[in-house]
């Protein structure tokens, strides 16, 4: 699974446009492919004679032109053109680093593709700018029932479904079974709740005389620390009503208990927790210097020689009655509101996220039950816990234009509690005020 979910900063479209146009870029029109052309269609499905209308899809080359997926895109192209005579599909793409900037410029300059991959951190700006087709208005609510709720919520705007979830991921608890044994803990019983996580971390740190950190934290990532722990509850950082009004909800028991948990865990954290990012923390776990971490598949991806001492479990939740949860991200498939052929573009978006093609056109985890069930991940024992966890993955707040600023404020709050020993109640009061200030700015 890719590692960029939830980590990509939201760039204002106007700023990107100014920068790229100044560099002489951004002339990617719907009829011109400045990136890489997708695969040619397979034989069969003759189209009627005469001029064909073109539908353009824009994604990144790591999937569209990769030899593992290009034939499937060719199959999809043939199927769509056969079922929709008079239309021709063109797959456009650029490498991820270029794509991330260019697709924003395409919209800001009025040269949008008919449909495209949308990155979930960018979704609020696209939706608020009126760039996206309201898919729910045509498809109806029943169409979206098979998508995982937490991922689907990332692509809702004012209650409307503005994109189809395409990929997703999650974090799980990784724990060291050997160290559990050494500390007198049952290696087959990892912590299930926050209180058990705290107790096990303290036991391990004490049993190893501090040579092994009971729990690892990647505060150096400069994002909401251990967000997966907080999402393993029924709480959210903010609430958004039907009018769009945003109300902070941090001055509540769950968030206060979350801050207190991190504060209580501090003696069990790796000494460098303030500067660690997720990759460095994963390496420390592989080196058996940290007994438990919450992470994605990068732990073994970055440390292929890791010994088989580790176990995986669902993220410990608030209490036994709380819902399961984890941080999740992903990409969606959106249709441009300016497409000349919105109905056909919507049909192609549905085909990309259908059980026939979703799991075969990309390397990540599909975001719906039917596609997940036939994906390579569903049958690989290494992903069993991920497959259980991913259905409850979500983010800690609804998508708004203020998502990034609110996330940053939560990070600052945790930093004050852990690094400056700020009292939890004081930290919560300051955060509530900060969120109100952020969300009421003109």
From TrEMBL:
Which superkingdom? Bacteria
Q: Indicate whether Oxidoreductase appears among the record's keywords.
A: no
Keywords carried by this UniProt record: Signal, Transport
Q: Look up keyword Signal and say if it applies.
A: yes
Q: Which InterPro entries match?
A: SBP (IPR006059)
Signal peptide location in the record? 1-23
In the record, the note on similarity to other proteins reads: Belongs to the bacterial solute-binding protein 1 family.
Q: PANTHER family, per this entry?
A: MALTOSE-BINDING PERIPLASMIC PROTEIN, MALTOSE_MALTODEXTRIN-BINDING PERIPLASMIC PROTEIN
Tell me the protein's name. Answer: Extracellular solute-binding protein
Q: Which organism is it from?
A: Paenibacillus sepulcri
